[in-house]
Specification:
122 residues, 26% helix, 47% strand, 8 strands, 1 helix
């Protein structure tokens, strides 16, 4: 009986340790591997300024100077695509994306190939 309790306590301790190690690694990896959330991404296209703000909780905001249009979104990424879900109407948009360097983000979608610059979050 005593050996059973010691074994059970050891297994419980090991599970707690594995869980805490995994949690720490996951949150560190998501912050360090997602350059999207470092600042905001802005494009000035003939005077029309559009900005994407990404948060590390997979939410964000789109802001456009055209008609003062803005909306909140959630996002998911794959190796080469980003999926935006508009919070208000639940519409989904998919863009292919690539990082040109740490300060440039290219969105590719039908008819457009736009490069956004990283800037400090306002």
């Amino acid at each position: 009986m005593k050996k059973s309790l010691v074994l059970l306590a050891t297994v419980a301790f090991a599970l707690v340790m594995l869980y805490s190690c995994n949690n720490g690694a996951t949150s560190e990896n998501s912050e360090s591997t997602s350059p999207l959330v470092k600042g905001q991404w802005t494009l000035n296209f003939f005077g029309e300024i559009t900005t994407y703000q990404f948060n590390d909780d997979m939410s964000g905001k789109f802001i456009s100077s055209k008609n003062e249009d803005s909306y909140d979104f959630t996002y998911e990424t794959t190796a080469d695509s980003i999926f935006f879900t508009n919070v208000a109407d639940k519409s989904v948009k998919r863009y292919a994306y690539t990082f040109i360097n740490d300060d440039k983000l290219r969105f590719n979608y039908p008819g457009h190939n736009m490069v956004y610059d990283r800037e400090a979050r306002k």
